[in-house]
Specification:
The structure is a homodimer. Chain A is α+β, with helices and mostly antiparallel strands. Helix content of chain A is 36%, strand content 21%. Chain A has a six-stranded mixed β-sheet with strand order 4-3-2-1-5-6, sandwiched between helices. In chain A, strands 8-9-12-20 form a four-stranded mixed β-sheet, with helices on one face. A three-stranded antiparallel β-sheet of chain A has the order 7-10-11. The interface between A and B is large, with 73 and 73 residues.
Chain lengths: 388, 388
């Protein structure tokens, strides 16, 4: 293909386009407190969120009055279709260069008062997204008089709270993952390979409308389950083994994320005890989840439940993460995370236990924070399934 | 899933591990010319190339004497399995912080001459990969006395030339794409949806051993083909339409990339003329491809062939790109690209013609630069296929 594509914000029909005007205006309202004259948005999911543009090459320049999307000639038709609240500039060569030059021109115009743009001096940029080299190019093209201000997290914070359109898509994306997983269960038998099951899962998600898997599907059987990130391998599943499935669908730009663990055979008492502890940890996290609590409280609830079962040392990652246009977005539910949960946020709850040499157990659901608590978007059965 | 995964370098059995020692030593040999005391490698495909590590979180710190991989507790087992030529540090918290602190300690030790490490002062980093925020964290942890030097492209240049093990995998990845495409051809009929065909393609690639698609599969029918990056949509294919297929497989970390265009029905004379011109442009690029020529000469050869057919204005992207651990890597075959082609490089050749309202034609193959010319790794038929 002709250039690399981003993982998120990549389908041509999405929820975002409709809300562009409101989202831009919400962002612009925050300019004043920081005395920002412009903001360079380079992270593609953020560009999509604000403009509706789904191409793989685009930078949005937002000023207090308006917005302009810079892209290249591969996207002339697509940008005209998708972008309504920003002028579109088709650029030959470096987009960052074009954005920097535009800033320099705006400043010059502001100086001679020929335009509504005031003197453009303080410009925000995404320090967590722009590389050192990209920033250097922007710097050079804009000239020495721009004062650059790292201005991260503002769009991400807005994205964390989903609107009704986004939630409708996310429920559908969750359903696609759940029903695909339920459909392949009869295939899980000793002898079938992990990557055959991954192929079946991804095929079913695609057929149900997903534009692709949200990440490399994990099917990790037996001892491989002790690696929290073991991608599906050619390993054949054996009898009396745990198998961890971690899958997600991208639907109109939005991801789902589901993990289930089954036992092939009749599970011994110790495995049943571990499974029950993980399920209790997830339930504890869900019980803790409501508007006003902090992210680390939800993480601590899961961790505490595992500590009661003396399994907290086997839980080697955080309890969950925000989900939406990216598979991992704000808020992170981990140790020391102070962000406060709000109604409309969607997070995963995914405690796990990993035992070297034996395997892993992880149970993951996508949960919407409601006015009073939380609601699962993923609805597949959570009890231990023994396949005999 | 528990954290986002990179798109490349993500399978557990790859060609890279064996060559780690030689690759590290080749890199270290270049330190002297720049008087580098250390090099921080943060780009995951580069980390994999040098160390064999396939995890989604890892930084490699290379000194003239040795190398150390910093990762987190999710990868304890995996790193021990995969990494043989670097010490592994399992870090709690920020990897960049740990790397920076390690640099500070090495410097202190160098100062008191208790170690073989000389005074660590000049440290290279990947300016094209590290974000402004990441660089800031590294800076802070390492202390003020480090002199940071952007040192981009060295590993990428080495990666551009493939060794025999890598080529064996890439041939297999190319075969998977080609045979999957040939298998779904009988399904291409009026009424079938683009995304059904994408699902069939990805399923077949998976079943043949791919760990996943190398990028979002493109199936673009009728007028949608005029968008060079139209992902497969729910649109049903109509009679008398062009359909562009752009697909690739990831096999043990390495990508293939194949585009074919078919006509559903009997193609009118104008379409045949366009198709012939694109095929000639690809042939011209292939004829130009050999060790010693520059990337822009190959691009110019394709562009010239299209100019003879008065179609060069309809060719809106560059002729090709390097292919390997990333779908787009060095060298880029485009206007003004001065890099010189060398035997062992693998590049795509993918001229195209895009006509708004009608559709697109693109033909793309993966070509290996040999000692005397070029050889295609992708072997599917290139002639116009009319499906009646």
């Amino acid at each position: 293909m002709a250039r690399q594509l981003g993982k998120a914000a990549k389908t041509s029909e999405t929820a975002g386009a409709a809300g562009s005007a409101a989202r831009l205006s919400f962002l612009q309202q925050q300019f004043e407190a920081e005395r920002l004259d412009a903001f360079v948005v380079s992270h593609l999911p953020n560009v999509f969120y604000l403009s509706g543009f789904t191409g793989s090459s685009g930078i949005l320049l937002v000023t207090p009055q308006d917005a302009a999307l810079f892209t290249d000639s591969r996207y002339t038709v697509q940008a005209a279709d998708e972008v309504h609240e920003a002028r579109v500039h088709i650029v030959r060569g470096s987009l960052l260069n074009a954005v920097g030059e535009r800033l320099a021109r705006l400043r010059a115009r502001g100086n001679v008062r020929r335009s509504s743009h005031k003197n453009v001096r303080r410009v925000g940029f995404e320090a967590a997204r722009l590389t050192v080299l990209q920033k250097h190019a922007l710097d050079k093209a804009a000239g020495a008089k721009v004062r650059w201000l790292p201005w991260d997290g503002k769009i991400e914070a807005a994205r964390a709270v989903k609107d009704a359109d986004e939630l409708r898509i996310m429920r559908e994306a969750a359903d696609i993952a759940c029903s695909s997983w339920q459909e392949i269960l009869p295939l899980v038998k000793p002898g079938i390979r992990e990557n055959e099951l991954a192929a079946e899962l991804e095929f079913r998600m695609r057929r149900k409308g997903a534009s692709g898997p949200a990440f490399d599907t994990i099917v990790a059987s037996g001892p491989r389950g002790a690696l929290p990130h073991a991608h599906a391998s050619p390993r054949a599943i054996g009898k009396n083994e745990l198998v961890v499935f971690d899958l997600g669908a991208i639907l109109r730009g939005y991801s789902s994320d589901l993990t289930r663990t089954v036992f092939v055979g009749r599970a011994p008492a110790e495995i049943r005890r571990w499974y029950a502890a993980v399920l209790q940890a997830q339930q504890a996290a869900r019980d803790a989840l409501r508007p006003g609590v902090s992210a680390h409280q939800v993480d601590a609830a899961a961790r505490q439940a595992l500590r009661r079962a003396a399994l907290d040392k086997k839980f080697v990652h955080s309890t969950g993460h925000g989900l939406g246009l990216e598979v991992h977005e704000m808020p992170r539910l981990g140790r020391g995370e102070k962000s406060i949960l709000r109604a409309g946020m969607v997070v995963t709850l995914e405690p796990g236990v990993y035992v070297e040499g034996t395997g892993g157990i992880r149970i993951e659901d996508d949960a919407l924070v409601t006015q009073t608590g939380a609601e699962y978007l993923t609805c597949a059965n959570r009890e231990l399934i023994e396949l005999e």
